[in-house]
Amino acid sequence: MPNYKLLTPGPLTTTDTVKKEMLFDHCTWDDDYKQITLSIREKLLKLAHVSEPEYTVVLMQGSGTFGVESVLTSVIGENDKLLIAANGAYGERMGDIAEHAGIPYLMYEVEYHQIPSAEKIREILKEHPEITHVSMVHSETTSGILNDIASVAKVVKAAGKTFIVDAMSSFGGVDIPVGELGIDFIISSANKCIQGVPGFSFIICNREKLMESKGKARSLSLDLYDQWETMNKDGKWRFTSPTHVVLAFAQALKEMEEEGGIPARAKRYEENNHLLIQRMAEMGIHPYIGSEHQGPIITTFLYPEHHNFSFQEMYQYIKDRGYAIYPGKVTDADTFRIGNIGEIYKEDIEKLCSIIKEFLEEK
Ligand SMILES: *Cc1c(COP(=O)(O)O)cnc(C)c1O
């Protein structure tokens, strides 16, 4: 069997005990199974620091993008308008989604190494009173930058608009006080910081805003309200549920609790990230994002000066020795990326950096 650990931002390396849950073919209609779904939804509310009846959770089949597309195409009405603050590929993807669905939107684009400005968003909202919803990405996995959702939330809430956050690669790995910030829809997926396997996304919704979206969806299978309505009755999924993924996710949540919840996980990720950046700096390899905005999830590194190797060569060398890294995705610089989330510890970071050191010495 091939064996390496993933230093990518999801799917990521999961525990054997999470994978083992998938060996059972669970029946979907009985109470045991529905109970698992209900318990997952309850736990997610807790992780977001919110509770019923103000907030509720929808699980949606598909990868993370399906979750983002479900929210954007379900909650923004025909006469509404969306402002998207983007500084990377995932923010831009929200624009693509809006384009495909014919959702009226305005794009506020920022360079990939900068964060969207709350002040600028305040101005845009003032200039464009027709805007009803604002969306942005929290951890822009494209670059690894961590956007300031707290400052933006303040401005969006003061203006009385609906706030949608793609926290795909941060939820569970960075503590987010969803209720306190007044985030109306926050989206993440099974295969990121909760450390499950890919197969569904989840959306923590302000219940009132979700109720208002009834009948607005542009898609049948991605209809957020309809999905919620079925699931909220007794835990039944509207269409075939990804049973194996759900079982693995329930186990991943349990293991997260055992680790010490979000505080412990966030600490481990941060320590991994700091150690990685420190060790790479010792080899003359530096992050693309300034330390002020570098997030704890994934780091984009600039190649060392005068390097004489390709990404493919480096990737293969590292993979042969037990780790898979990620190509760069920013558009204005030659880079590669290393994620530090998943079942990854300091020992892994030390080992990876010694492999990279060896590679550079051989070059
Ligand atoms: C992973 C990720 C997504 C979803 O990507 P999928 O490939 O559809 O799972 C969306 N936004 C961000 C910021 C991500 O990191």
What does this structure look like?
Helices cover 42% and strands 16% of the residues. The protein has two domains: 107 residues, Aspartate Aminotransferase, domain 1; 241 residues, Type I PLP-dependent aspartate aminotransferase-like (Major domain) (Aspartate Aminotransferase, domain 2, 3-Layer(aba) Sandwich). The chain starts with a strand and ends with a helix. It has 13 helices and 14 strands. By secondary structure, it is α/β, with parallel strands linked by helices. It binds pyridoxal-5'-phosphate. The site of pyridoxal-5'-phosphate (PLP) has 12 residues, from α3.
Describe the structure concisely.
This protein is an alpha/beta fold. It has helices at residues 16-20, 31-47, 64-75, 89-101, 118-127, 149-158, 178-181, 207-212, 224-234, 243-259, 261-282, 311-320, 346-362, and strands at residues 5-6, 55-61, 82-86, 105-109, 133-137, 139-140, 145-146, 162-166, 185-189, 200-206, 298-302, 323-324, 326-327, 335-339.
Mind sketching the topology for me?
Blueprint lengths: L4 E2 L9 H5 L10 H17 L7 E7 L2 H12 L6 E5 L2 H13 L3 E5 L8 H10 L5 E5 L1 E2 L4 E2 L2 H10 L3 E5 L11 H4 L3 E5 L10 E7 H6 L11 H11 L8 H17 L1 H22 L15 E5 L8 H10 L2 E2 L1 E2 L7 E5 L6 H17 L1
Parallel strand pairs: 1-12, 3-4, 3-5, 5-8, 8-9
Antiparallel strand pairs: 2-10, 6-7, 9-10, 11-14, 13-14
Bound molecules: pyridoxal-5'-phosphate (PLP).
